[in-house]
C-alpha cells in the first residue's frame, strides 16, 4: 500500500495493531490521550536517499528518549527497540514516495471505561505511528535567518517529558505565528529555557552556550548532537544558565529540532541578533550536521549491505 496523491495527506498509519489510511483511523473518546493528554510522543526525521529509500537519523537516541518518557509517566513500553524499528520500517515501506519525512509516534495510557484522573487498572496503551512529509528550511531562509520573539515560559516543570500535553507549547507557537516569527523563545525567572518546539543556543565571545538539561527543557536529540558537532568543529561549548541579558546581547542565536536541524535566528523581538546575519558558529554547526547525517547513512548502508 502507498499513500495516494502527494497533495492529499492520507498516509497509511498504524493504530493498535492495524494498518490503514489515516482518514479511517479512529480512537474512542475515553482514550486518556484525548481526555487528559496522558501520553507521550516522538518525532524521528527520515531523509530521502539517492535511490529512493528513506533513512531515519539518530533513531537509537529517539527510541531511548521514547522509553525514558514512558518510564517517567509509568506507561510500560509496549515494544522493545526491535519492535519499534520494525513498526517504523513498515511505516516507511507503506508510504514510499519522494522527499524527506518524519515518523510521528504517540503512546497514550489507553482507553478507560470511565473518566477519572488516576491511572485505571488493566488497560493497554494506545499506539499510533504516522509518517508525514518533512520540508526542511530552504537555503534562502537559512541564508536570511529567522525571526523569533520572546515570552515568559509558563509551562509545568516536567518539560523533560515529551508529553502530548502541549498546551503551553501550542500557545507559544501561536504567539510566534501572530508575530510573523518562526519561533517563540521562552524565559523563566529571567533565564533562557527553550523554544515552543526547539532547543535554543547562543554564542557569546566565541563560546556556544546551551541551557542546562533538566526539568525546564526537553533534551532534544539534537542537544547531544550539537555538543558532538561543536567538539568536532573546535567550538567551545558550555551547558549553563543563560540570562535574558546574555540572550539579548548574543553574537548568534540558533534553534535546533528534528524538523529544523539547526537554524539561525537573526531577529529577536524586532532587533538584529549580532550582525543581523547568520554567524560563523551556525555555519560551522550546520556543515558538521550535514556531515554527521552523511556518516550515519553511510554506516547504515554498510550494515544493511
Ligand atoms: N524542545 C521542545 C519543547 C521540542 O518540542 C523539541 C522538538 N521535538 C525540541 C526541544 C527539540 O528536540 P529534538 O532535537 O529531539 O527535535
Automatic annotation (TrEMBL):
Question: Does this UniProt record's set of keywords contain Signal?
Answer: no
Pfam families per the UniProt record, alphabetical: Aminotran_4
Q: Which domain of life is it from?
A: Bacteria
Q: Which cofactor does it need?
A: pyridoxal 5'-phosphate
Q: Give GO terms for biological process.
A: amino acid biosynthetic process; carboxylic acid biosynthetic process
- Where are the annotated coiled coils located? none
Q: Which GO terms describe its molecular function?
A: transaminase activity
| UniProtKB keywords | Aminotransferase, Pyridoxal phosphate, Transferase
Q: Which GO terms describe its cellular component?
A: cytosol
Q: Which PANTHER family match?
A: AMINO-ACID AMINOTRANSFERASE, D-ALANINE AMINOTRANSFERASE
Similarity annotation: Belongs to the class-IV pyridoxal-phosphate-dependent aminotransferase family.
Question: In its UniProt entry, what is this protein called?
Answer: Class IV aminotransferase
According to its UniProt entry, this protein's organism is Caballeronia concitans
The major lineage groups are: Bacteria, Pseudomonadati, Pseudomonadota, Betaproteobacteria, Burkholderiales
